[in-house]
Specification:
Mean pLDDT: 95
Structural class: alpha+beta
Shape: globular
CATH architecture: 4-Layer Sandwich
Number of helices: 8
Distance between the termini: 24 Å
Radius of gyration: 18 Å
Number of domains: 1
CATH superfamily: CNF1/YfiH-like putative cysteine hydrolases
Strand order of the largest sheet: 1-2-3-15-7-4
Amino acid sequence: MIERQGDECVYLLYEHLSGEADLRHGVFTRKGGHSAPPFNGLNVAATTGDDPASARRNQAVVARAMGLPLISAHIVHGNEVCVVERAADESIEQMRARLRHISADAMMTAEPGLGLFWGFGDCAPILLYDPRLRVVALAHGGWRGAAGAIGPRTISAMSERFGSRPEELLAGVGPAIQACCYRVNEQVRATFAANPLAAESAVFEQRADAEGQPALYLDVTASNARQLLAAGVRPERLEVAPWCTGCAEDLFYSHRMRVHADGRFGVVIGLAA
């Protein structure tokens, strides 16, 4: 990934997406920003204990860096996909207010001039771009989203709504928590097992914990990436971020590693106006 220095922020670009002239995207690190300790940095979430005014200032930093207004649906840790469209004469503020009442874990749009935006803290951001039809999508791939195949569901929704072809999409996954840091229980594995595609693509690791007892770990990044490949994304058109959010706390926020000070790092994708 490519590092960019913005005004009061540092963000990352996927290399193959960075060359698309009509596209704006960024995975924002926690560097910069206005949040005080223990949220210090560019925390974009106003619901995890940080000062809401600081989180709003940080969101404004992200919006300026992208040159787009930020639009978000309400995340529910599921696998629903929503279409983001702007009604005639609808203001950005009216659109934001409407979307707050829509629950989804993936957003897609063909509308230029909007930045699909969410905050992440261990769940995998999944960015999708159709360069032929100029359609973008942002999915939230936590373990529940991955267990529900949120990536492939988003690709299917793009195909049904806009006519996108999986093999033509450009995709980026991560950063997210990986098996080195993410211990899960057998209920998580059972939830994956209920969805054949999720079960086939899941990356679990069985190893001893610090006390020498058998333990189960999940790689959220790899599980989501493998699902995209299974859904038809070509390997050369997929870029996977190398960082585990549990390990790279200097760059990203991690809910699992800091439960009581868990900010969120921003991720945006949108079409230039």
